[in-house]
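Letters spell out the chain; backbone shape is given numerically. Both lines appear below:
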Amino acid sequence: MSNDEKNKKRDFLLRDKEEQQAFLEQTWCDKCQEADLGMHTPLEYELDGTIYIEGTCSKCGEQVFTELTDDEL
């Protein structure tokens, strides 16, 4: 299976505005070791059946990842 088949891009902007805002604000940054610093430049994708939102920490600029659980879908 190719990488493209395992990693499927999704459109973050198709989510309603409130949901987008929640995902952009409720983050965890491993480098800062802090929650809810926010992220920008979100990229949503599905990898091996799991949906992720990846972006840039608003405080330090490192990549942050959110893995969506069934409760969040």
Summary: The mean pLDDT is 90. Helices lie at 3-6, 17-25. The chain is about 20% helix and 40% strand. The chain has one domain: 3-72.
